[in-house]
Amino acid sequence: SRAHDYVAKEVKAVREKVGAIEIASFANHKFTGKGARKFLDYVLAGRIPNQGRVNLSPMLRKSGKLYGDLTVACMNDETYYLFGSSAAQDMHRRWFEENLEGVGDVEYQNVTEDFHGIAIAGPNSRELLSRLTREDVSSESFKFRDIRDTFIADVPALCVRISFSGELGYEIYVEPQYQLKLFEEIEKAGEDLGLKLFGSRALMSLRLEKSWGAWTMDFRPDFTVTESGLDFFVNWDKEFIGKAVSLKEKENGAKKHLSVLEIETETEVSGDEAVMHNDKCVGYVTSGGYGHSVGKSLAMTYLPVELIDEDTELEVEILGKFHQASVVMKPLYDPSGSKMR
């Protein structure tokens, strides 16, 4: 996206002021009933949050391979939402239905078509949200990873304090008939705050600078939870699908890990480019692009663990030419994550 100045402007707006992006592309799954928490605690490898909170959780196959990277929200003891990839929603629906066979105290619905929405992100996003609701949205009252069933822009909404941009941000979900009203009110309230609409190319640039993987590219069933780094979110003290295999790999150590590369190039990767070390292919690019805030060309790849060092000399083949690359050992933007918290 380096060739497109408008993407750079969108990234700049999110980093310095506030941006808005439509999020109807997320899939939404709803679980209700007395057994909902117990069911999700087994199907998901991560921790199930308490009421009014959300957590990120990987979902695995029995083989230990990734099958989902989902945000799980607890509205109350018997109502839960899972937000995830729209591209994988049918795959996930079939998986949920398969594992619900014989379970009588859980009701499942794919409610993706019932929710559209807009996410706002950036230093001015809290001020923007405060202009759209009567609720207290201060950091003390509306904490990072909180979720509320509320009214925003005078329409009923689910609001989550979370963002894939790495900035302070909120995801606002509404029924389709309220989407236009929500958009118009956000646009009006954010006019003097530097509000700018941003798209998926800008979002991909923002998340690369945070060293965050994305489903269908960096996270997919080709890789395990330990290889992907999503084992950070696993609750190893419970039983879950895929635990036996995953625990064995955790104890023995994975042979490769998802890593970020900085590439010396004027041409960005598009995916599947060869990653070379000493004239040998040691991996391939899973995703990449230009980090507009940090001014660097970045790519993600699964590297053998023995090569994950900032002094390792690598090359990436882009359009038939080899470009020098090095391993990024920590996020180039806000490595502590303080901005979004």
TrEMBL record:
* GO cellular component terms listed in the entry, alphabetical order: mitochondrion
Q: Where does the record locate the signal sequence feature?
A: none
- Give one Pfam family: GCV_T
- Record domain GCVT N-terminal: where: 3-238
> Which sequence ranges form a coiled-coil region, renumbered to this chain?
none
Query: What InterPro entries does the entry give?
Result: GcvT/YgfZ/DmdA, GcvT/YgfZ_C, GcvT_C, GCVT_N, TrmE/GcvT-like
Please report the stretch or stretches of sequence annotated as the Aminomethyltransferase C-terminal domain. Answer: 257-334
What's the protein here called? Answer: Aminomethyltransferase folate-binding domain-containing protein
